[in-house]
Amino acid sequence: MADVVPERKTDIGPPKYDSMWPPVIKENFGKWKYHEILEPGVLVHVAENGTKLFTVRCGGTRLMTTLHVENICKLADQFCDGYFRFTTRNNIEFLVSDEKKLEPLKKALAAAGNLPIGGTGAGVTNIVHTQGWVHCHTPAIDASGIVKAVMDELFDYWQSHKLPAQVRISLACCLNMCGAVHCSDISILGVYRKPPVIEHSHLDKMCEVPTTIAACPTAAIKPAKVGDYKSVAVNADRCMF
After folding, report:
1. How does residue 168 score in pLDDT terms, banded at 50, 70 and 90?
2. Which domain holds residue 104?
3. How many Å apart are CA 241 and CA 193, to the nearest integer?
């Protein structure tokens, strides 16, 4: 009989959804009876057999340093048997199966100073945003600075349940709207108001000129030589902005 070929391991696509579940979730899959919010940022799920799983939600960012992620992992190792997860809005959720570790975890998060608890229920949840100038080549505005400024003003609503319902805010840096602004309660959208200004002395050092020309959907950009620089010119009448 031929040997059974083991399943090929690959890094293409996400892992199977249940491969990284904590044991308490595996054991009670499909058997959760109810859940409730105990306080802003703290939830409890109760299974049919009485098992409880506590979730502590903290604010995260889209762009994190490896040191910050390492500190999050250390907290998860200390209080959550190594288990935590990210939500689609960049929240960090620590999964606590031992109720005795709940209060010590909350105190450790408060001491950390950069992992505020909140974002549940009738308040403001985390702002999701696009990549901005860090990685994308089409943004009209940057993302991180604006998101930080907005959340600084709304932070009290992150840690409270003062609003009639949960409010979701999103930011997209351009009209592509890959930041899900079309399905949020409040949208912040960056738009171009004028044709772009060209810095001829820097363009060929920062951009691939053929790619830049090809990226324009209205063919408003064409190659040009300005002085000693190989650059581009923009036809303002054809420019969509």
Report:
1. very high
2. 23-112
3. 6
